[in-house]
Amino acid sequence: MSDILERQRQQEDMQKNDAVLDAFSMLVSGGRSGYKSVIEKKPMLFFCKSCKNQIGKAQKFCDECGANNDEPIIG
């Protein structure tokens, strides 16, 4: 799970980089200057592996069933 979170952090850092955003904007716009694209960021949702209730990112135990969620379901 830590690999997934690390990859998510890397993607967020790349999306904040102006050079990456400018290159993506040029690619999407067909080379038109001044075009700024909007990159949609979807939040990562975490679910209890026992009862499938949505839980917080760093939440170790489910509020509903009390199950230990060291590695929750990411969806």
Describe this protein's structure.
The protein is mainly alpha-helical and 75 residues long. The chain has two domains: 1-40, no CATH class; 43-75. Helix content is 36%, strand content 8%. It has two helices and three strands. Strands 2-1-3 form a three-stranded antiparallel β-sheet, with no helix packed on it. The longest helix is centred in the N-terminal third of the chain and has 15 residues, at 2-16. The radius of gyration is 18 Å and the shape is elongated. The model has no long low-confidence stretch (mean pLDDT 80).
Short structural summary:
This protein is mainly α and 75 residues long. The chain has helices spanning 2-16, 18-29; strands at residues 46-47, 54-55, 73-74. The chain folds into 2 domains: 1-40, no CATH class; 43-75.
